[in-house]
Amino acid sequence: MDDIAPLELMAVVLSRELRDFEVGGAGVASLLPMAAMRLARELHAPNLVIGGERVYNPKPTRLYEDGQDARNFEGAEAIEGYWELFGHSHRGIDFFFYSGMQIDRFGNLNLHYVGGTFDHPGFRGPGVPNVSFATTCKRIYLYPIAHTPRTFVETVDFISVPGHLQGPDSKRAAGLSNGPALCVTPLAVMDFDPATLAMRLRSVHPGVSVEQVQSQTGFSLIVPERVGVTEPPSSVELEALRTAVDPSGLLRTGLS
Predict the structure, then answer these.
(1) Count of beta carbons in the 10 Å neighbourhood of residue 18
(2) How far apart are CA 248 and CA 251, in angstroms?
(3) What's the whole-model pTM score?
(4) What does the domain layout of the chain look like in residue ranges?
């Protein structure tokens, strides 16, 4: 198991969260979510609907780094336009995936800018065209591909996608009822404390220490008395991932 790449482990962990007959999707840069959803369909959720954002149940023969690469649409049962997407997204789906430039202790996500102001940013991000799913789907999974203090910050510079805002009171005042369920990174798995809605360390990946995770996080995580080790991929999960989902090894070589 020593040759398992961090992105492979992330895909497997996320796939375990998805259930049969659910409907879920991801944003534009959807390599990891696509891997997780397709792996779930291969192993334990054959009726999972990969969709929610334009393309439904595609069957590409491999993964592609660019979520908008037309080869991702191979074998799709349906492809909708943006008019349809914005028209139905308010109804919500079961789950949705988000990554981002900054994430804070309450799971708020920044995809717009870092440093400066909104009008004069130090660094401009891609933004997000539709945040409906963030407020209407049943649960959100966060999957940053870097776990550093630059990504995990005390307060995001801009809330592009709301998480749990500043905790239970502010979330209740805003009328939000859902939010991030898990945050899966190359180092660990975090969930959110039910009482405070602050990020809590659930497990560290094999070979990673609690201290290492905390040192790479720009705020104090809630750390339970006992922190488990993330269950590594089984031989069945790894074979399905590498043969049926990612035969070209894109997750093993990493993202550019």
Answers:
(1) 22
(2) 9
(3) 0.93
(4) 6-253
